[in-house]
Amino acid sequence: MKREKILISDLALFISHSEGISPAQANRIIKMLIYYILVEVAMGKQVRLESFCNIEGYFQPKRTGSHPKTHEPIEIGSSVRIKFSLSNIFKQMVQPYISKFETIYKEDKDLNDV
User: Which domain holds residue 5?
Assistant: First the structure.
């Protein structure tokens, strides 16, 4: 079974119907929210969206590692790392749907194996 993707345009359409605004307005709001989160994380702040997730950026300093094939020491440059974690509340809310999805996935897989 192929997973469906939810696009920004899908979210915008949902918001536009539920809030009585145009899809274009909803799309702009979503993109501004994403941009705001991006800027805050890039500045090293933790973004906490209650009941959904935590996102934070942190600086990974330059370090010495080893080449996977030759095991020779190599310099690994510094970088900004992103940590994304779902909240426990979100995980608990999703859990009842996971078991339904597993049942549908198993039935679909069984049909494809025939």
Answer: 1-43
